[in-house]
């Protein structure tokens, strides 16, 4: 009997494990394959077997930090394999794998990591970071004002790493988001007590904390001479609806601080006073640029400064005035320049790696124990008036005890940072620090915005986007008032998905009859469908034979500034899934049978034409020139996450095909994100050209690092291996749709692996992208709307929040 079981195990170990636990293979076995997974931190869900495979013999040591907890040699089978049982890993955390491979007479040694992810833990969110954690996690906070302005501040006080770091990046348009304008870049500060002076810096930091969407706080323990210290909190708050940042300095009470004798004068026995020196560094630039003093600014900036005893005003030509005022103490005019301040993150991106900063002088004020002072930085006011300390509704008390900032519901609150004013309505900022509002990103993000309960906000946004629809098109990227860029096949289809989700959330279909400048929502949905069938002005058109949608190059979410990037001209899989969903939804609200029949034709065509790939899952794209029918298009064998949408949007329901999609997509997963392309060779080449120059190996197109020059390095990597956060939750959603409640534990484990990225970088936010290769560094926008909204949507579905 034992021999029979062993033979069955060797024949198909993964199926054997599934049978032993009465579960399908994807729900109990995580695959690890040599050599492609050497560069991937593999997520092992709770209670999963880890099945390691290699064409050559190997052995493994499993380590918990430096402690060896398991040693195994591979067994022969269809491949050489090791099966590690769930009890190998006693806790949910990262483990090291030391692997040795024996290739003929050569020996290879590799060290990898796996993340064993829990399924029953509560979601843990960190909003407060110690000094050590600030340095290890590169912790910083995004603050917003609800109108497109922002501040991006580092836990390392006084340090810049990016040209987007700022205490005030104003949105100077009064009605809609436009490129932000950097006016107030950073502060440097010193504490002075008697004859002792100390710079306020990371060296004295106790903690850095995000208090709310518009407020963050540094807590310092500062030396004041003679072995004594004092606690000082510094908070930065953006005023809602205004281009205003308020910096508050609060000296805390300390029972251990030596008090002055009652006869010493002053405040009669009060604590020893300290003086705070604050030197602001300012600029006047578009946030995509940097400042160079030698361009004439060295003379221009000082000439535009006006000052009095408590403030200064900066009046650069052709830009709004910028003013800083202090509530107590004084301002001393003493201009200076800081030259070539390094920007390490821009250097990694292959961009200008330094900027010059101008400081017009410094503020000086005294603080006794329990006292505070406030500096107001303001520009382009809409409701405020000049003045300080009461003009704006800032937090007048020390924000030392926020209401449970680590509560998981605060991830829902993070969504609010992306919902901003656009004229008399609302829109969604695609990502901070550099994106504005995009059609595709907004409409994808609305799914999570709806699930988070922002129903009235969603209604406003959908109605506004309905007015943008023209001949079946919607804006791709909106720049201020410019909606002319309509190069997107997916945005109009995501509009339909968002409307469907909205109606389900409302519990009735009344919304489809809402008026949008003379048309109903239903009219707009029909216009999209009918124009896709007959052809849109920008080249989108249905292939009548298959019912599939032809998409021009550079029209899907996998776009960059053409031609560098990922060409998916033809029939991309997620476009067909979205098209199916739009047809099915319109049939539900109209009852017209022709749309039901067409949706069935689309589903049948997907199952027929996208399953010709030798890897057994769905092709990512049927590549074709315009007017070439889908049947004659060239199917690729690239494994991408886009095929998951065929399951989540209902276009594919066959259980066996769903399982193949899920198994193929598993190899794309890393903690909190999913690779945009598998680390495998392809039979159908995927070349990337720029100006006639080949930028990649077309038969091995995987790029594991997103770094270097934008056009020749980062763009080819952007969708060819770089891991993305927004499609990541779709893997868990596909599991739940395919396997129901039996998949809940695995789905939760996958989703909870995102705690790693929630604890790094931008506090309580989700980044845009992550390196496909270990150590999976966070890249791109630090806070991306569709990343946090999609994660929240699946957290809600799985009851994690």
Strand content is 25-35%
Using the alpha-carbon principal axes, give the shape. globular
Number of helices: 19
Helical content (DSSP H or I, runs of 4+): 10-25%
| Poorly predicted parts | 257-270, 383-390, 396-405
Over the alpha carbons, how many angstroms does the gyration radius reach? 29 Å
Q: Which structural class do you get from the secondary structure elements?
A: alpha+beta
| Number of DSSP strand runs | 46
Instruction: Please identify the oligomeric state.
Output: single chain
Largest beta sheet, briefly?
9 strands, antiparallel
- N→C terminal distance: 47 Å
Strand order of the largest sheet: 9-15-16-17-18-25-22-21-20
Task: Tell me what the structure shows.
The protein is an alpha+beta fold. The chain is built from 19 helices and 46 strands. The strands form twelve sheets. Strands 9-15-16-17-18-25-22-21-20 form a nine-stranded antiparallel beta sheet. Strands 10, 11, 12, 13, 14, 19, 23 and 24 form an eight-stranded antiparallel beta sheet that branches. A hairpin with a 5-residue loop joins strand 17 and strand 18. The longest helix has 18 residues, at 573-590. The protein is globular and about 85 Å long. 51% of the residues are buried.
